[in-house]
Fold:
Amino acid sequence: MALHRLTSITMGVPNVEETQAYYAEFGLRPEGDGWFSTRDAGRQLHIQHAPTRRLVEITVGADTTDDLDRVASNLGRLGLEVQRTPSSVSAVELATGTRATVEVATRVTQDATPPTAYNGPGRGDRHEARAPGIMRTERVMPRKLGHAVLGTTDLAVTQSFFTHGLGFKISDVIKDHGAFLRCSVDHHNLLVLAAPVTFLHHTSWQVDDIDDVGRGAFAMLEGHPERHIWGLGRHHAGSNFFWYLKDPAGNFSEYYSDMDCIVDDQLWTPEVLEGARGLFSWGPPPPPSFLAPEDLGALMTGSHSPS
Ligand SMILES: [Fe+2]
Structure:
């Protein structure tokens, strides 16, 4: 029994209404109470007010109360103040001020989506028909929350909280700079990144395939070219296709598909990635604002104080 999924995140922003409208357009279903749902995994994004944009809370699903006991004792060993209820355990990660809550939750089983028919050399999987990706007319609605990326001023402390405290596993490491962590069979559910200030870099949302990565981003850019950040490309860590856009608070939001899965921990060897590999395999060159979002200076000098 174990952690099994990234259940939800709570994002704090100064401009709540504008940001909520953006995520509704992004394809998440507004529940009317500040929460947004995905197609396969229910309520996964909560947007609330904060003086500056930040990751307020991350919620992780576990199978049993035994898992909660283990997390509570590991967090206690790290010297942290732990809040415990019969069905959850919670603590604040001190370097970033982000609260992490592990709760007993049912596993989400996604129905197997039929493979998209792509023709290839010597392989005609699609005859007398245009590609599904150009025939689809429905708007893209993400299947589930995949991961969040958290900038921290103390990488060692933040990483230790999630690995030693909560029990996340390390999938790959960016040398001296960050770690891709998982609490499910997905390659990463959280990337912790060394940064000059605590901030939420991006959240990432699963769609069916590369066509829906493109269709989703293309629809968001219509009339809003300023939302474009980086894409289309494929990452090395996790292998996923990506396209990044920017919400009105300055957080990036990613459509992704085809991420690596790690079902048997023994069969995966984490890599230490250096240089461009830490960022991507192919795609346009990442813009400087992807690595250092334009508001970082303002976040550093602003009134930001995690609470
Ligand atoms: Fe990502």
Observations:
- The chain has seven helices and 17 strands.
- The longest strand covers residues 3-13.
- Residues 147, 149, 202, 204, 254 surround fe (ii) ion (CB under 6 Å).
- The two ends are 32 Å apart (CA to CA).
